Amino acid sequence: MSGAPLPQELVDELVDYFIDDYPQLRYFLATCTSFANRARYHIYRAIRIVTLCNLTGFLELCQAVPEIPLLVRALTIDPTISSDQRGTIQLFDVLKSLASLNVVSYDVRQIQDYKIIAIARGLPLTTLVFERAYLRFPRVDEFVSLIRGNAHLKTLCLGHIRVLDLVLDPFTRFRRPNPEQRIEALCLLTASALSLVLGYAMHHSDRLMPDPDANYTLIAMESVQRLVLSFDTLHSTRLLILFGLASNLRELIITELYPLDPYAYVTYGFQDLDLSRFSIIKAEVSDPRFGWRLVEWLVSCLVLEDQPSASTNAPEITIVVTVKEDLRLAWLNSEWNTLWCTLDINWAALSSPPTITIIITNGDHMSDISACGSPLKQVIEAACPHLVSRARLNIRVVKREQCDESFLYRQERLREH
Description:
Blueprint: H1 8-16, H2 22-29, H3 33-43, E1 46-49, H4 52-64, E2 74-77, H5 85-94, E3 100-104, E4 112-113, H6 115-119, E5 127-132, E6 134-136, H7 140-148, E7 155-158, E8 162-164, E9 185-188, H8 191-198, E10 201-202, E11 208-209, E12 226-230, H9 231-234, H10 239-245, E13 251-255, E14 280-285, H11 288-304, E15 316-323, H12 334-348, E16 355-362, H13 370-383, H14 385-389, E17 393-397, H15 407-416
Parallel strand pairs: 1-2, 2-3, 3-5, 4-6, 5-7, 6-8, 7-9, 9-12, 12-13, 13-14, 14-15, 15-16, 16-17
Antiparallel strand pairs: 10-11
Helix pairs in contact: 1-3, 2-3, 4-5, 11-12
């Protein structure tokens, strides 16, 4: 005798447990309808089309199963597929529910045309990501219109972007930012992306200089509340100008991408940044040298800002430490132990010490994090008795796939799916 069917809410919760297990999700497709519908939602929520074969296969699937295009929320696309202009137009026509577009060039030797982005311009996108984009724009207005033409845009990521033929000179005038556009999260992973957003003038001397007679800001910076920066961006002296324009910043995320010199940003005035405006500060490090300077900088900045007139709400600080196999011993040396002790003494003396969460996770080629993560946790806790006693220090050792706080890992999962 067959039992009563499971409630759909229970089925959804069971399938959701395997949200990142694609073989298991595909297995659910071969079971009953209640399981298949929920599994299909996760499988097609984020898709990747980087070849013409991907494009043709997906369009054929959409014709066979018309409800699939309505499930797609995020699309990662390579500009090379624009060679099939008819298929590209058809793709964006069927993706009525698309909210996130990630443009990534897998062949960095070939410069792509911007037209594929222009085709998607009419979509109500909330997220636009240029991850590795090598695009040729004939005029500055073509790029600006991509950003300003969508009032729904909430998240803009300019990572590793190389906009060729885009020269900002003193005679270029950007119109004032669209008042209807409210970009809340801005991700700048290169110094060139920062210059592009600020609209600086590029001179033959390779010096970036502002034109005081023009409004060059690409977006309305006062609407930005979350800012994601990479190590490369921290080298730029123009960063302080951006902080001056973005008056409502509440969350700062620092990611470690291509660290050139772990000590460079200290000499570039970044230590002058006022951290009292942030309620959340997150950082991701895998290089112990960069991690050292980052922690040292956080300690010095927060101690300087502990003034009676300052806000009593200290920021919540989260540091994601990715331990790689070849660098795992560097996190346990005596110099690090001294720095943790300094952090404990200085922050414990603050009138309102911040709450710091340290998440230790494993890097590539290191399957077992407990072997290094547990000793590192014990070293930090032993060096910070004051923060531990005041419940201001929380240390967790987790596997990378379970590290939801990692911005970089979320980007990796999006690319894989």
